[in-house]
Design brief:
There is one protein chain. The protein has 160 residues and is mostly helical. The radius of gyration is 24 Å and the shape is rod-shaped. The chain starts with a helix and ends in a 9-residue tail after the last helix. 27% of the residues are buried.
């Protein structure tokens, strides 16, 4: 059971490396597009003000607002990708610790974080079923660690 849970945690960690790189890349691209959009909106606003075109000024202002939101979204997405990369490293370590039967608290924390992140992805991206595998792997890790803890004999204070 510990071997299966460890392999699943390592596998989901490798998948999260790819997801983290993808989220980070797309976030940086979106942030760059937002910057370009703001520059274009600024120059369009200046040209519209020189011609005294009210509708073009409003369109330039709206473009500047949308570009600002795109920059914020891109930065947030890139930060989420970085967080996934950190989580992926922890998952690979947790998989190794699960197979060795060491550091059960670390494994429990990493599995809980994986469930939380997978639920975040499931609720934000409808129809995306890949995080279900992450929840399954984390559940197996939790089950392996908790069942291993129950099988250990209790140590009395008088014996210690």
């Amino acid at each position: 059971m510990k071997i299966l849970a460890g392999v699943l945690l390592i596998t989901i960690g490798i998948i999260n490396v790819g997801a983290g790189i993808g989220y980070g890349f797309l976030g940086r691209v979106a942030e760059g597009l937002g910057t370009i959009g703001q520059e274009v909106s600024d120059s369009a606003g200046q040209a519209a003000s020189q011609r005294a075109d009210q509708s073009a000024q409003q369109a330039a202002q709206k473009g500047k607002e949308v570009s600002g939101m795109l920059k914020i979204f891109g930065g947030s997405l890139a930060l989420f990708g970085l967080g996934l990369l950190v989580l992926a490293g922890c998952q690979i370590a947790a998989g190794i610790f699960t197979m060795d039967g060491k550091k059960p608290t670390f494994v429990l924390v990493v599995c809980a974080l994986e469930i939380l992140v997978s639920l975040m992805i499931l609720t934000s991206v409808p129809g995306w079923m890949c995080p279900v595998f992450g929840i399954f792997a984390a559940g197996m890790g939790l089950f392996a660690v908790l069942s291993d803890r129950k099988s250990e004999p209790a140590v009395d204070a008088a014996q210690a």
